[in-house]
Design goal:
It contains eight helices and nine strands. It is 47% helix and 16% strand. The N and C termini lie far apart (41 Å).
Length: 236
């Protein structure tokens, strides 16, 4: 699953790499003004295992993945891979992530912050922001996961069938955090596989101040929901 917005510089290379590995590809394009959707259509016309879902506007990363999940579940897919379309996720890391998801039956995350993982090309402030965000998640949500914001991951069908997608309102990196949180709440395993993350070489990052603020408030909301659930259990 490749959510796209203005990724014409990278999309064909990423799709081609995934198809060489034998994976079906679904591009979810949010009406990119740079022609990304047209490139996706061309790739799909040449390969019947490349699919495109066009959406009418920039509706957000979280809703893009939820639409992709629903479509894949309807079609009987067993494994669902999230991957950035900007070239920052290496195709060679995908095999271990998929294998880990199959073994654990839940969620496998391509992690930058476990032993063997690495980040290349980021300025120090960007690395610090990412590490601080993940520390914030661990402290407030009691998550043992080192890289809850990673967008390179694989879900099993069984897990997605039990996650209440309609109840998830988070967007952007907040969506990634909430999915880890809900996966653990449901009792499914979350495993981390080391990856090397390389910063994009063309295009612009989608991370903004509003995105950071949204992630902070999402974690607070999930913490309050968790506290409320614990209090309800004690009353019972």
């Amino acid at each position: 699953m490749l959510p796209t917005y203005n990724e014409r510089h990278h999309l064909e290379r990423v799709v081609t790499a995934m198809r060489r590995l034998g994976h079906d590809v679904l591009v979810v394009d949010d009406a990119s003004p740079d022609g990304t959707g047209e490139i996706a259509d061309r790739l799909a016309a040449a390969d019947d295992r490349v699919y495109v879902l066009h959406r009418p506007a920039k509706l957000g990363l979280g809703s893009a993945y939820k639409d992709a999940f629903r479509l894949g579940l309807e079609q009987g897919s067993q494994l669902f891979v999230e991957m950035d379309a900007d070239g920052s996720h290496r195709p060679e890391d995908l095999g271990p992530i998929v294998a880990a998801a199959q073994r654990c039956g839940g969620l496998a995350i391509g992690s930058r912050y476990v032993s063997g993982g690495a980040v290349e090309g980021w300025p120090f402030y960007r690395w610090l922001l990412s590490r601080a965000a993940n520390l914030y998640c661990r402290l407030l949500l009691w998550l043992p996961t080192s890289d809850s914001t990673s967008g390179y991951r694989c879900y099993t069908r069984d897990l997605l069938l039990h996650v209440a997608l309609d109840e998830i309102v988070s967007q952007g990196y907040s969506f990634q955090i909430e999915m880890v949180h809900r996966t653990r709440q449901l009792g499914y395993s979350v495993v981390e596989v080391p990856i090397r993350f390389a910063d994009r070489v063309a295009g612009s990052s989608k991370v903004s101040r509003s995105e950071v603020w949204r992630a902070l408030t999402t974690v607070l909301r999930l913490r309050l929901e968790r506290r409320g659930a614990l209090r309800a259990r004690r009353r019972i």
